[in-house]
Amino acid sequence: MINILKNPAHRAWLVLMIATGMTWYLGEVGAAGTWAIVAMLAIAFVKGRLVILDFMELREAPMMWRVLLEGWLILVSSLILLAYWISLK
Amino acid sequence: MSESSPITNQAAASTKRLPGDLAIWFFIMAEMVAFAVFFSAYAFTRAGHVEMFNLYQQTLDRNLGALNTVLLITGSWFIVLAVQAAHRDDQKAISRNILLGFLCGGGFLAVKIIEYSAKFGAGISMSTNTFYMFYISLTFFHFMHVILGMVILAVLWFQSRKGVYGSHDANGLESGAAYWHMVDLLWIVLFPLVYVMR
Amino acid sequence: MQFKSQAVAKPYFIAAIGLFVGQILFGLILGLQYVLGDFLFPAIPFNVARMVHTNLLIVWLLFGFMGGAYFMIPEESETELFSPKLALAMFWIFLVAGALTIVGYLTVPYATLAAMTGNNLIETMGREFLEQPLPTKLGIVVVALAFLFNLTMTMLKGKKTAIAMVLMIGLWGLAVFFLFSFYNPVNVVLDKFFWWWTVHLWVEGVWELILGSFLAFVLIKTTGVDREVIEKWLYVIVTLTLISGIIGTGHHYFWIGTPEYWQWWGSIFSALEPIPFFGMTVFAFNMVNRRRREHPNKAAVLWALGTGVMSFLGAGVWGFLHTLAPVNYYTHGTQITAAHGHMAFYGAYAMVNLMMISYAMPILRGRAANSNKSQVLEMWSFWLMTIAMVFITLFLTAAGILQVWLQRVSDTPLPFMVAQEKIQLFYWMREWAGVAFLIGLIVYITSFFVGGEEEKAK
């Protein structure tokens, strides 16, 4: 088991599965409002980052490309957060 | 997330490389900008129609959406394994993993079609209301990207059967893989945004 | 010249330049009519001058595309043209048909022309840019089919390179989408809906493929950069063009009676249309910076860089300015559109044709490049025309902003004609910039007749 988890791809897959389950569960219990939104965005952010770093293998890539992709993720999450924050007011 | 120390950073400077072709990354960025605009348009429009969005979001099938997330992530994972197999020249594993990734994509399409036929069968269309307009637009645009990704995977599979990829050259495989991961990445944002967040 | 049959391109280029002159002259008449409403009335009314101005533009660009394709395809396929005779015959048919059409516009009232040319058989006339009488439209189809047949046969017997494939897809697309000019449903919404399939899918779709492929061809020839590198860029640009351009058609569907979702689809996708143009700018500069040799034809390289920049500014930036539905709600059909149209057509399609002519003409005249004297003159004309066009665009933009303000945004909106009178100053300035453009064009033509020591053909 420990050996299998040495492969970053396997690790990432496992975390992604658990995270997907969490988002699904939050939907099932009807979570809504500020904390639910922040939690779901945080989960999506962690998932996206894992895909970028371990699936796309940008961990070892030139800084510019990491910044571009991770920057995209930060930008999109912030815009969504901003829009939802406006909607809660 | 572990950050590498300055020393290893220097050592790694010479080996830092972008997997796949520069052109595909340019393309991926352009696609992601398109989706970023779409996502923000959804979120900001929702801010003006919160009740409508919250009401109709309930009609979406979260289980199928989550199942599709699982399928795409697993499909992405298989493609990573294919790239890893290429770097250790395990020809059989390359083709097998690409095929498994492709099948995951096919599963995604099948689930999506089930979901669509339920919605369209109920007479829902892009003109029904703003929420459904976004739901159909976003998911269908993404659907088309899954299809394109699968076409790319199919090409990769045929090439891999000819033994094109290996530790000597995995550029084509890595380029296609990067695109496939993008399809996954986009869904990871799309699913909570459209199906769950309220 | 590598292949004798490439010579058929020459008459096409000459005709293109000739019609270009005509277009500019009518542009000046038209510009003057904006400020002196009865100038040349009733001989040449505004609507006729406008029709001639836009139709000449389309026809000269088509001549340029055909000439460029006849020059490029044999060289790319590494074989003689399938039938040079057919190409020449089509040249004369197209030229005569084009000339007759213009004469028809100028001598007969449009309604009479329609009655004379059998518009009652299939009603295709009377729509902007597609005003041509039925026989002309059919002629265009025949010429286009013969042209495509000729080039496709040439390619089939020779090499099939990626950039030639992109060009052929662009040209076939051009022909296919022209067929929608024959489809004219009575329902006005459907009419407009499909009218854009010709107009939009030409200039923001398949023509961009022609542009990209011409640019790639000239860059390969003048910079010596590896074909593989250039092809890779071309693939990316083509894909981005098609993704943004096809659905981007929606930015014409905001207010014509189509479903509301087009406001979203049209805004989002057309907002992405600048990206492939930006790609072309980066592409042109990148390749020229990585050049492996100094090509003697400096003027052609200048045009290549110029089209990279100006197409991005004109089509990309000025298009983006008014492409989002909430903005377009105010700017639709104002001088903002005219500003965008002028710089986009010049920057993308006029300049890419001038680039091709600049590269090919010296070779067709038996030398690698024109004399230094001639090239200096050509570069002068480049700057004169380009800067004049920048000013035309800026003045029209100013006129447009003022018009939008006075006529639409204001709490007490002015009627159309009153608003027009308030922006006369900008129309005058635009007219003078147009005169500068004409001077640039005269300098350009002069450069063909300047001798001096030429680069030997290789």
* CATH superfamily descriptor of chain B: Cytochrome c oxidase, subunit III, four-helix bundle
Give the SSE string of chain B: HHHHHHH
- Our count of domains of chain B comes out at 1
Structural class of chain B: mainly alpha
Summarize the helices and strands and which ones pair or pack:
The complex is a heterotrimer of chains A (89), B (198) and C (458).
Chain A: H1 8-28, H2 34-55, H3 63-88
Helix pairs in contact in A: 1-2, 2-3
Chain B: H1 6-13, H2 22-48, H3 50-57, H4 62-87, H5 91-121, H6 130-161, H7 171-196
Chain C: H1 9-35, H2 46-77, H3 84-107, H4 110-116, H5 134-157, H6 162-178, H7 188-223, H8 227-248, H9 261-271, H10 274-289, H11 298-321, H12 325-331, H13 335-364, E1 367-369, H14 372-409, H15 416-422, H16 424-446, E2 455-456
Helix pairs in contact in C: 1-2, 1-16, 2-3, 2-5, 2-13, 3-5, 5-6, 6-7, 7-8, 7-10, 7-13, 8-9, 8-10, 10-11, 11-13, 11-14, 13-14, 14-15, 14-16
InterPro entries (chain A): Cyt_c_oxidase_su4_prok
Keywords (chain A): Cell membrane, Membrane, Transmembrane, Transmembrane helix
Protein name (chain A): Cytochrome C oxidase subunit IV family protein
Short description:
The complex is a heterotrimer of chains A (89), B (198) and C (458). By secondary structure, chain B is mostly helical. Chain B has helices at residues 6-13, 22-48, 50-57, 62-87, 91-121, 130-161, 171-196.
Write out key terms for the chains shown.
heterotrimer, A: 89 residues, mainly alpha, 3 helices, flat, C: 458 residues, Cytochrome C Oxidase, Chain A, two-stranded antiparallel ribbon, 16 helices
Give a verbal description of the structure.
The complex is a heterotrimer of chains A (89), B (198) and C (458). Chain A is mostly helical and 89 residues long. Chain A has one domain (4-88). Helix content of chain A is 78%, strand content 0%. Chain A has three helices and no strands. Chain A has helices spanning 8-28, 34-55, 63-88. Chain B is an all-alpha fold and 198 residues long. Helices cover 80% and strands 0% of the residues of chain B. Chain B is built from seven helices and no strands. The longest helix of chain B has 32 residues, at 130-161. Chain C has a two-stranded antiparallel ribbon with strand order 1-2. The radius of gyration of chain C is 22 Å and the shape is globular. Chain C contains 16 helices and two strands. Chain C is mainly alpha-helical and 458 residues long. The mean pLDDT of chain C is 95. Chains in contact: A-B, B-C. The interface between A and B is large, with 50 and 50 residues. Chain C: It is a multi-pass membrane protein. Chain C: This is Nitric oxide reductase subunit B. Chain C: One of its GO terms (molecular function) is metal ion binding.
